[in-house]
Amino acid sequence: MFSFKKASGLSKKAFINYAIVIVFYLVFQILVSTGNITSALKGQLIPITCYMIMAVSLNLVVGISGELSLGHAGFMSVGAFTAVIISSAMGNASNPARLFVSILVGAILAGIAGFLIGIPVLRLNGDYLAIVTLAFGEIIKNILNCLYVGIDEKGLHFAFNNPDALGMDPLGKVLINGPMGAVGISKIATFTGAVILLLVVLIIIQNLVNSRTGRAIMAIRDNRIAAESMGISPMKYKMLAFTISAAMAGSAGAVYALNYSTLVPKKFDFNTSILVLVFVVLGGIGNMTGSLIAAGILVVLPELLRKFSDYRMLVYAIVLILVMLVTNNEKLKGRMDIFAKKVRMKISKGGKKK
Amino acid sequence: MLANLINGISLGSIYAIIALGYTMVYGIAKMLNFAHGDVIMVGGYVSFCAMMYLGFPAPLAVLLAMIVCTTLGITIERLAYKPLRSATSLAVLITAIGMSYFLQNAALIIWGANPKAFPNMFKNFEAIEFAGARISPVALVAIIANVIIMVALTLFTSRTKVGKAMRAVSEDKGAATLMGINVNFTISLTFAIGSGLAAIAGVLLCTAYPTLMPTTGSMPGIKAFTAAVFGGIGSIPGAMIGGILLGVIEIFARAYISSELADAIVFGVLIVVLIFRPTGLLGKQIHEKV
Amino acid sequence: MSKSPEVKLVNVPSPNFVPEKDLGKPLVLEAAHLGIDFGGLVAVDEFNIGIGATEICGLIGPNGAGKTTIFNLLTKVYEPTRGTIMLGGRDTHNLTPVQVNQMGIARTFQNIRLFDKLTVEENVKIGLHNHMGYHTLAGVFRLPNYWREEKKAHERALELLDIFGMADLANVTADSLPYGAQRRLEIVRALATGPKLLLLDEPAAGMNPSETEELMNNIRKIRDEFQIAVLLIEHDMNLVMGICESIVVLNFGRIIAKGTPSQIQGNPQVIEAYLGTHRG
Questions:
Q1: What are the DSSP calls for B215-264, one per residue?
Q2: pLDDT tier at A196, thresholds 50, 70, 90
Q3: In whole angstroms, what is the distance from residue A83 CA to residue A252 CA?
Q4: What is the pTM of this model?
Q5: Which end of chain B is less congested by CB atoms within 10 angstroms, N or C?
Q6: Which residues of B touch A118 (CB under 8 A)?
Q7: pLDDT tens track for C66-88
Q8: CATH for C73
């Protein structure tokens, strides 16, 4: 007879993810307060959380909406540089308020960028869509490379491709200096703030997926023509997923930027987009729990591989290739399953003997 | 103006040669071989070492680079891509990205992070004056090489038995197998040709822009891939047209608009083209059957 | 004596016929002079049809006659080259598949197109998409109307699945269903969009005689319960002759015969189309 695949309860999965985030937060908060953590790892806590947000938000596009995006870092940079400007512009407010407004505005601007880019991009399919998102990511980076922003008593000054055009008071401060990037950022991001943002992002994505909107997005992914015949407009829902995802990347970028004192646009190039995509794919496409764990482990992994020093990125590459081969090749997958079964049998037998 | 045009065509010719590797592999294996750009870099390093350390003359160094890259291309295909023939395109893409990281970091360990100054293999040749514009020998060689490669490949795929087999596999793997074509051999051959061309492109690129680093191949790789998409991926003349247009646009943007924004303009043009012709300039329109 | 104002005279089409019970009710679908060319090849030409409000109509013809192309024209997957399609009295010129679905036409596909990775219930709920009255934000923030509408949709989905006795499979993923059940799920899903006209593309393909018998009863049941019209493509002549009130026969993109099952069965042109000319 047929063996039916039962879908496990979606709401249960959602709560597991909240639990993972909260445990992650508590464990590291305790480690930090008791001083049982290396300073290198401690410095990584906010970036790790940001990459988790990046991974789950990209998973919304790649996993739920089924479109391969290679320009996610571009939206992160929009949020990052917006946050630098906003946080400096509201210099007198309290830090949490500055952080909050920076995240919000960063998310909104990145969302607008996502919407505008989505209009041409989402008309394309498959690999063409991927290459155009890559192109937009590079364009955003190039534009930010030409952006000069300064602040003085009269307010903000903007210039494009010409630092001399800022026209500031001699006492003014340059915030973003073209290819040199943002300088003198006030480091107001906190681990707690980042984790709260991660939770909010998770709640939004998971609630969205388990609603009529999410089902419409997945229907378009599984079969666009059938979805259209059900009266669901592909463009509308693809745009929605793409825009929300971009806004979330912007919010992650905002927190990320406010954790450093300087930041160059080059940080958000194609390689960062790929890195986030790797988290999503290794964690399992469409699997939010996987994205969280993969982002966490893979950001820390190069850190853990430090004793291999020069070889660590090489090891990282080999691990990546091997994981892809083992999880995607039918033969290897079969052998791994048999192996896992044997191990499980042995364990259970051992348990019975006792 | 003329000088810029010729420089553009020359840079575009290099892109076109790289783009051929992307387009042929995509046509036959339906995958984006992200590691292709890094094969260029390996080609650059091998010819560099052959000339500087082993004292090889330039033509022999190029030949050595081609042999090494061809072997490398076949090895990569056999080890990393062949086991994933039936996997999703995303899985293959990530594997290719992993391969790209691997090659870059291996190069980093072998040759170090410091940029190497690539020797000028045309130092015995004078720049040619043409209608008031100076044309460097490497520009001329790039253009000539591109034309020869293009003609040779077109003849190869349309006239020879192996070339026809290649086209058959790219149309329909299953049917090709039934017709007695060795699909694995054909795919390996495609990778071999693409990688051999990458070695030539690597040498030309490093001669024209003589700094050699582990990341040298990645940006030209992305641009050449863009060129392949621009011209219609899977199409050999498309790769040539896409590459040359891209090169010309890039050089003109650098000269007349802004060198900072040149890449943005190149990618911007790509996007505009894809909006109006969603499968590139010479790409085939594909309709889903309902 | 004043002259009464001059009125405009309008041509009323109608070489069409409908079952007697549907007389007086507006036609659900009316297509006139419909045709489409694919790069010089005339795939469909001069296709005229009128479907009554609760009619079950069969569209038959040899392979490659253009039957599925007609479905694609009616659902606006293709924009016709010639002719008009009126759906519930409204012209569908330049409308999209999404818009015509919302106007009351739903279909199944010859090569099954389910949302494979989603559950049976979710597949049906996607059909109910445009009948669920809450906004995206209400879903994200889990406002009361989210819960209310989701509950309603859940109940409605089970009700619809129950027509085919599939309610107990609600939590199974669509791709793990056996073939016949997948075909039935496609019908349920199309029905969930609340159509006035249901297009079924080879609903009995791959079914055994007893399954086909059950399907026939279910198609009749759907028509009676929902008071909708059905247009179906089918090769199984027992099914076509058994449930269709009228039949349209297509060959080489053109209608060669129209009528009741018994008229069609006796039509020499139809026999020729199916069996070829008798020579010698």
A1: TTTHHHHHHHHHHHHHH-TT-HHHHHHHHHHHHHHHHHHHHHT-TTTHHH
A2: very high
A3: 10
A4: 0.88
A5: N
A6: none
A7: 999 999 999 999 999 999 999 98
A8: 3.40.50.300
Place of tokens 């390093």: B45
How many cross-chain Cβ pairs, B to C, lie less than 8 Å apart? Answer: 4
A171 at the C interface (CB within 8 A)? no
Partners of residue A180 on adjacent β-strands = none
Widest pairwise Cα distance in chain A: 82
Evaluate whether residue C8 is within a structural domain.
no
Q: Which of C70, C62, C60 is nearest to C243 (CA)?
A: C60
- The confidence band for B119, taking pLDDT boundaries of 50, 70 and 90, is confident
CATH 1.10.3470 fits A10-311, yes or no: yes
Would the CB atoms of C129 and A6 count as touching at under 8 Å?
Answer: no
Residue A8 pLDDT class (50, 70, 90 cuts): very low
The pLDDT tens digits for A311-328 are 777 887 888 888 888 888
Nearest to A11 by CA among A248, A214, A283: A214
Using a CB-CB cut-off of 8 Å, the residues of chain C touching B290 are 68, 72, 77, 109
In which element (H, E) is residue C84 found? strand C82-87
Q: Which of B89, B101, B271 sits opposite A313 (nearest CB)?
A: B101
ipTM passes above 0.95: no
Q: Do A233 and C113 touch (CB under 8 A)?
A: no
Count of CB contacts below 8 A, A vs C?
A: 114
Domain range holding C97?
Answer: 25-275
User: pLDDT tier at A2 (50, 70, 90 boundaries)?
Assistant: very low
Is B290 in CB contact (< 8 Å) with chain C?
yes
Q: Which residue has the tokens 């007879």?
A: A1
Name C119's bridge partners.
C173
**Closest-approach residue (CA) in chain A for B112:** A310
